[in-house]
Each structure stands twice: as structure tokens, then as C-alpha cells.
From TrEMBL:
Family from the record: Belongs to the DNA mismatch repair MutS family. MutS2 subfamily.
Role noted for this protein: Acts as a ribosome collision sensor, splitting the ribosome into its 2 subunits. Detects stalled/collided 70S ribosomes which it binds and splits by an ATP-hydrolysis driven conformational change. Acts upstream of the ribosome quality control system (RQC), a ribosome-associated complex that mediates the extraction of incompletely synthesized nascent chains from stalled ribosomes and their subsequent degradation. Probably generates substrates for RQC.
Annotated source species: Clostridium neuense
Listed EC numbers: 3.1.-.-, 3.6.4.-
CDD domains recorded: ABC_MutS2, ATP-synt_Fo_b
SUPFAM superfamilies: DNA repair protein MutS, domain III, P-loop containing nucleoside triphosphate hydrolases, SMR domain-like
Self-association and partners: Homodimer. Binds to stalled ribosomes, contacting rRNA.
Binding annotation for ATP: G332, P333, N334, T335, G336, G337, K338, T339
Domain Smr stretches: 712-787
Keyword flag Coiled coil: yes
Protein name: Endonuclease MutS2
Keywords: ATP-binding, Coiled coil, DNA-binding, Endonuclease, Hydrolase, Nuclease, Nucleotide-binding, RNA-binding, rRNA-binding
Residues in coiled coil: 227-255, 513-631
Length: 787
């Protein structure tokens, strides 16, 4: 994206506002580097991540960034094997804790809303609770090491405490003995040694070592000979304490170094999450929405607001471009809001292309453009001897040399700064050239010739900023489809200009021009309400369609759940009946054993009759249950190849791949299995749905066969164990109907990754495979697409 447009449209100010919501300097650096993305996929993914982050904030509150710091320098030092300072270790531990808590933060119960993009990003976070705990147990804060950091440190500090208590008792005793020679009856510390303040003329009376003197020279700070040994012992203990602390810091730094790849990855992900949630917090502050993003050049902004104007004063605008018309010509009075309209359209486009939600209403849409060009403002240059017209023309020449059908072009006062006749003709020619290229255009002008050009040219539409003649003030509202009316006569009349002068002026204008102006006024009055009603109707229609889709999905889910529950209930009933039959047989067997003890023939007949009745009752119950299960719903009379059917016995869907044979059986593709099923045992698929809905339902039916995770973790395994695990996992994933899975092998030396890659080359279930992208785990994972 060209830097001039970013500067003119004040894109940098939006980044400055987002930076206020970041927690770390590393995230601020990402914001500084942020620019519109250069492909549609990235734009949609980054917009989705912002939308998901905002939803998480609304649902779960503030994300767990407590104690987050920029640890890039500390991690870099650890990677080089340096021993880190306590503050650096604490900040790394805080970062690791943020990452671990984030995995808990995004966790959701089954059936709750998923957050695909952010969950994929967080998938790469590997909790290092042992390192985290080791650091927090050893370091109290950024300056103090805990006594519990090691048993040795605890013993040293206990001895140091005892020695300090002894030396204090000793020095207090000396203060009493030498009180006559002291400036004050108190002790102090110089160079980590206890000393007493002695009058300089009495130094001979207090034998000891002089460590310091006062500024006036009247006082000497002497360490009495009786304290020398105690002070030496304290100093020795302090050196041991320092050495032990350095050893503890080296040990903790070594732990960080031992997992440096994971630590760096966690730090990168936490920083990225900080950036994403900063965008979401900014979106919340301006009441923004995620627009629909297309690549067909369609812009449809509904009640969009310029994000840098005071929310209490900003007037929302609605503008659409790219369907019936690819160019808009905006006319109207000065200070009426034409330039603000241009800047709003351009800035909202840049924000959306950067994954930033925009301040507008739901159902707004923006298009992906490779470039947004803007010629806005007066940029005359004294140094380069360029007039206003020349500076504009220099920009326009650059735009014409580069614009194509993937460009959005914004012109402010096109053709201004020169002779009106020539300027208008030139403006029409420029607009026509860019229109033929397929560029999307929004231009403001004062020239009436451009109004006429827009009226007679297909694909070009007039628009205007409204002016209130009663108050003589602009309303700043944008009116689509209506060219601006000059209102010169009405304004002059209200300001007191004589009626005869206005009448003489009217006579000097052709009747056609006056009729045109009156037509504009009538159009303006009638169209404002019609346009507003039409936009509202379109919005309500979209909302109704979304609600319809939502409730159709819920209805299908309820029906599906009900059928599964019934099916499960019947299976449970069959299991209970089978267990009852086994129990009955056991009882009857026991009865036969009793018969051997001497029952009469009549008793034996009675027992046999009871046994027969019990088995008949159980068989009847089982038969009724089977019939009920078998004949639930209407069986199919005929099927055709490619038709989707439901198989009650397997509780899943399948696709017919052959016509019925002589036995009345058809071959069904169910997941990866091919099975033969009688035509009468098949049922119709649940309702007719769109292709998209059917795809979703088929996927759900496959997943019901078996619940399988979307990834397998091989870290810590040897090559043979890893191959076995992956082979078994791919079988299960294929049966479960998964399209794409992730194999986590870590980075390490690369041996495990190479082993898995060699295996995947010839595996029958594998369609393709690749290393993970940024946010997926990088070279530490392999993403496998299944057949």
C-alpha cells in the first residue's frame, strides 16, 4: 500500500490509538509495522481474529495479560547462554503464566461457541509450569531472592541473621564503654562493616580501623578491634550469599535455556495475542463491527463514522459502490462534508484491510483492493515551484500510471485550481479513463459538467452533501443518487438580497438550467426518505435471513439429537433385555440343579412352563423393539446413484453408489466404508438443504461414528513408537471423517520430523502434507490433509 495514501487518510493515527491498548512494547512494535494485508485470505483471517477477540472480551471479560512484559531482550540473552537477572527471570515467568492462563481463558465447554482462529494460535502455546514455578518459588520480586530458593541460601541467611544480632549486641556494649569519646551514641555501617563515630581528637582512645571521616573532619568512623572478626565473618557470609544467589540464577537461566525454543514460541504467541486483543479493545471503544469482505469491488458502508471525529459530533454516512455503479461524483457546498466523506471511505477501507473492525452498522461490506489511491488536500510546494493545480496533477499522473481494476481511487476537487471549463473537461476525461479500467472511484467537485456526466454515463452515480436552506448550514448528510443543488438564490434571498436583483439573475439563466435545479430539489426531497426506507428494508431482510438460517440449524440439531436419543434408548433396551435373558437362563439352570434333588414330575413341568413363558416374553419384547427400530419412518422404494440416504442400523448417512441388485440390496459409501444394505432398510436424508448445509450435515454424521482429536502429540517418543502412533491415529481420523489433522513432533534435531515425513509420503490415507504456518506451530508441526 502506498505511503502517501496512508499519510493523507491518517492511518497512522488509528495505529496510535490501538497502541494505547497494548500491554507490551513488543505488541506496540507489531502495531507500528501494521499495514493493509496484500491478499484476501489474510484480510479475512485477521478480521476474524479481531472479531473473536472482541467476542471473548464481551463473554469472559479482560484477557489474562496481568504481569505481561516485553521479554524479547531477556529471551535473547537466555538463548545465548547468559545468566539472567532476577527481574528478567520474573518477567519471563510472568509471560509463561500469561500463555498458560490464556489456554484456560479460551477453553470452552462442548456445544459452546468456538473461536477457531484464536484457538489455532493458542494451540502453539506449550505450558512450562515447572519453569514458571521454579522461578516464582526462588524469586519474590524483581529485586529479592527468596530464602526458600535453596537450602544452602536458607542456612547462610540464618547464620547471617545470627551474626548480625551478635555484632549489634557487641557494638551496643562498646557504645556504652566509649561513650565519652563519641560524637553520638549510635553505630553506623561503612563498606558493609559496623563502625562507631569517634571524635577525631579521641581516636587514640578507641583502637581500631578507620573506614571513613565526616566532611568537616571532626568525626572518624572507626571499626573497633573487638568487631573486626565478627565483621569479617559477616562479610564472608555475605560473599557466600552472593555466590549462592548467582548459582541459583544460573540454574534458573539454564532451565530457560533448556526450553528456549518453547519459551521463544510462547513469547511470540503472547505478543501476537496482545496485539489482537488491543485491536479488539479499540473496536469496543468505538462501537465497531466486522464488515463482510469481498473481492468483487463492492463497498456498502451503512452508517459509517469517521473514527477520528468526536463521536458526539460525527454524522454517520451511508455509501454504496460496485454494484450498479463503479464511480460516484459528490457535489455540494464548501465545508459541507465532501472531503470528510472521502476520508471516511478511504480510512474505513484501510482499517478493514488491516484486520481492524470499523465504526459502522452490521451488514456493512468492504472490498479487497490491492491499492487505495487518494488525492486529497492542497499540497502546493514553494520549493518545487508547484501550484495547487500542478501538485494535484502530479499525484493524478502517478495514480493513472498505476491504477487498475483492483484499485480504489479517491479524488478531492478533481480539476480544481485552473480554468473551470478546461478543468471540468479534464476531470471528465480522467474519470472516464479510470472507469474504463474498472477502478472504483469516488470524486468530489464543484463543476456542474460532472453532474451532467454522472447523469448520462452508465455506471456513474451522483451524490451530494445536504444543505439546510432554513438555517444556512450544512447537515453533513450524504445523499446518494442526487446531484448537489447550488442554492445560491435561496441563500442570497435569506441573507437580504433584493428580490429584483435575484429575479434579474434568474432571467440571465436559461429555463432548462432552472428546471434542472428545480428537478434536483424535488428529487432531493422525495428520495431522502425512499433511500432511508430502502436501506432499512434491506437491513431487516438480511437480519431475517440470518435468523432463518440460525433457527433452521437449531431445528435440525434438535431433531438430530432426538433421533440419536431414541436410537440410543433402543440400544440400551436391547442390552437390558439381553442381560435379562442371560439372568433368566442362569436362574433356570439353578432350577435344574434343584430338580436333581428330587422334585416330582409335576413340579418339573411347572418349572419348564415358567421357563418357556419367561423366554417367550423376552423374545416378544426384543422382536417388538427390533420392529420398532427397523420400521421407524418410511422405507425407500427407489434410489438413484449419488443420492444421500440415512442408514438407521448404523445411525449415519451415506451415498448410494450402485442401483439395487437382484436381492434388493444397494451399495452405500458410508465414510470410508462400502457396505451393502437392503433398500427397505434405508431412509431418506433429513430434508432438502443447500449444498453448504448438506456438507455440514455429512461431516457431522461422520464425526458421530467416533470422536477423534484433530491433532496427535509425538513429543518424547522414539521413531518406532511415533510411526506406530501416527499410523493408528490416521486410521482413526479417516474413519471419523476428518479432512485435516495436525501431527505435533516438535523442532529439536529434526530426526522425528524427517521420520514422520518419510512415512507420510506413502501412507494410503494422506492426500498432502506441509509444515505448519505462522500461528500453527511452525516447523514443530506437520499439517496433513486426508483423502
Amino acid at each position: 500500500m502506498n505511503e502517501k495514501s496512508l499519510r493523507v487518510l491518517e492511518y497512522g493515527k488509528i495505529k496510535g490509538k490501538i497502541k494505547r491498548y497494548t500491554m507490551t512494547e513488543a505488541a506496540k512494535a507489531i502495531v507500528d509495522e501494521l499495514k493493509p494485508y496484500d491478499n484476501l485470505y489474510e484480510v479475512k483471517e485477521h478480521m476474524e481474529e479481531t472479531k473473536e477477540a472482541l467476542a471473548l472480551i464481551m463473554k469472559k471479560g479482560t484477557p489474562p495479560f496481568e504481569g505481561a512484559y516485553d521479554v524479547r531482550e531477556a529471551v535473547g540473552m537466555a538463548e545465548k547462554g547468559f545468566s539472567l537477572m532476577p527481574s528478567q527471570l520474573v518477567r519471563i515467568a510472568n509471560m509463561l503464566r500469561c500463555g498458560r492462563r490464556f489456554k484456560e481463558y479460551i477453553n470452552h465447554k462442548e456445544g459452546e461457541e468456538e473461536h477457531r482462529v484464536i484457538e489455532d494460535i493458542c494451540e502453539g502455546i506449550v505450558p512450562l509450569k515447572n519453569i514458571e514455578d521454579s522461578i516464582f518459588n526462588a524469586i519474590i520480586d524483581e529485586e529479592e531472592i527468596s530464602d526458600k530458593a535453596s537450602q544452602t541460601l536458607y542456612s547462610i541467611r540464618r547464620s547471617l541473621k545470627d551474626k548480625n544480632a551478635s555484632v549489634k549486641d557487641k557494638v551496643n556494649s562498646m557504645l556504652r564503654n566509649y561513650s565519652a569519646y563519641l560524637q553520638e551514641n549510635l553505630y553506623t555501617i561503612r563498606n558493609d562493616r559496623y563502625v562507631i563515630p569517634v571524635k577525631s581528637e579521641c581516636k587514640a582512645q578507641v583502637p581500631g580501623l578507620v573506614h571513613d571521616q565526616s566532611a568537616s573532619g571532626a568525626t572518624l568512623f572507626i571499626e573497633p578491634m573487638g568487631l573486626v572478626n565478627l565483621n569479617n565473618e559477616i562479610k564472608e557470609l555475605m560473599l557466600k550469599e552472593k555466590a549462592e544467589i548467582e548459582r541459583i540464577l544460573r540454574e534458573l537461566s539454564a532451565k530457560v535455556y533448556g526450553s528456549i525454543v518453547t519459551v521463544k514460541n510462547n513469547e511470540r504467541i503472547v505478543t501476537e495475542l496482545d496485539f489482537i486483543f488491543a485491536k479488539a479493545k479499540y473496536a469496543s471503544s468505538i462501537n465497531a463491527v466486522a464488515p463482510h469482505i469481498n473481492d468483487s469491488g463492492v463497498i456498502d458502508i451503512v452508517y459509517g463514522r469517521h473514527p477520528l471525529i468526536d463521536p458526539e459530533k460525527v454524522v454517520p454516512l451511508s455509501i454504496y459502490l460496485g454494484r450498479e455503479s463503479n464511480s460516484i461524483v459528490i457535489t455540494g457546498p464548501n465545508t459541507g462534508g465532501k472531503t470528510v466523506t472521502l476520508k471516511t471511505v478511504g480510512l474505513l477501507e484501510l482499517m478493514a484491510l488491516s484486520g481492524i473492525m470499523i465504526p459502522a452498522k452490521e451488514n456493512s461490506a468492504v472490498s479487497f483492493f490491492e491499492e487505495v489511491y487518494a488525492d486529497i488536500g492542497d499540497e502546493q510546494s514553494i520549493e518545487q515551484s508547484l501550484s495547487t493545480f500542478s501538485s494535484h496533477m502530479k499525484n493524478i499522473v502517478e495514480i493513472i500510471n498505476n491504477a487498475n481494476n483492483k484499485s480504489l481511487v479517491l479524488f478531492d476537487e478533481l480539476g480544481a485550481g485552473t480554468d473551470p471549463t478546461e478543468g471540468a473537461a479534464l476531470a471528465v476525461s480522467i474519470l472516464e479513463d479510470l472507469r474504463k479500467r474498472g477502478s472504483r472511484l469516488v470524486a468530489t467537485t464543484h463543476y456542474s459538467e460532472l453532474k451532467a456526466y454522472a447523469l448520462k454515463t452508465e455506471g456513474v452515480e451522483n451524490a451530494s452533501v445536504e444543505f439546510d436552506v432554513e438555517t444556512l448550514r450544512p447537515t453533513y448528510r450524504l445523499l446518494m443518487g442526487i446531484p448537489g443543488k447550488s442554492n445560491a438564490f435561496e441563500i442570497s434571498k435569506r441573507l437580504g438580497l433584493a428580490e429584483y436583483i435575484i429575479n434579474n439573475a434568474r432571467e440571465g439563466i436559461s429555463k432548462d438550467s432552472l428546471k434542472f435545479e428545480d428537478l434536483i430539489q424535488n428529487l432531493q426531497e422525495k428520495t431522502v426518505k425512499a433511500e432511508e426506507n430502502s436501506r432499512k428494508a434491506e437491513m431487516y431482510k438480511n437480519e431475517a435471513e440470518e435468523l432463518k438460517i440460525k433457527y433452521e440449524e437449531k431445528l435440525y440439531s434438535v431433531k438430530d439429537t432426538r433421533e440419536k436419543a431414541l436410537m440410543e434408548g433402543r440400544r440400551e433396551a436391547k442390552r437390558i433385555i439381553a442381560e435379562a435373558k442371560e439372568e433368566a437362563d442362569t436362574i433356570l439352570k439353578d432350577m435344574r440343579e434343584l430338580e436333581k434333588l428330587g422334585y416330582s414330575s409335576e413340579a418339573r413341568r411347572e418349572l419348564e412352563n415358567s421357563r418357556r413363558r419367561l423366554r417367550e416374553n423376552l423374545d416378544d419384547a426384543e422382536e417388538k423393539l427390533s420392529k420398532k427400530e427397523k420400521f421407524k419412518g418410511e422405507g425407500l422404494k427407489k434410489v438413484k446413484e449419488g443420492e444421500e440416504v440415512f442408514i438407521p442400523s448404523l445411525n449415519m448417512k451415506g451415498t448410494v453408489i450402485s442401483r439395487p441388485d437382484s436381492k434388493g440390496e444397494v451399495q452405500i459409501q458410508a465414510g470410508i466404508m462400502k457396505i451393502n444394505v437392503k433398500l427397505e432398510d434405508l431412509r431418506g436424508s433429513k430434508g432438502e438443504a443447500s449444498k453448504k448445509d448438506k456438507a455440514v450435515k455429512r461431516r457431522e454424521a461422520k464425526l458421530n461414528l467416533r470422536s477423534v482429536a484433530t491433532s496427535v502429540d509425538l513429543r518424547g517418543m522414539d521413531a518406532e513408537e511415533a510411526i506406530y502412533s501416527v499410523d493408528k491415529y490416521l486410521d482413526e481420523a479417516c474413519i471419523a471423517g476428518l479432512n485435516e489433522v495436525t501431527v505435533i513432533h516438535g523442532k529439536g534435531t529434526g530426526v522425528l520430523r524427517n521420520t514422520i515425513t518419510d512415512m507420510l509420503k506413502n501412507h494410503p490415507h494422506v492426500k498432502s502434507y506441509r509444515l505448519g504456518n505462522y500461528g500453527e506451530g511452525g516447523t514443530g508441526v506437520t499439517v496433513v490433509e486426508l483423502k
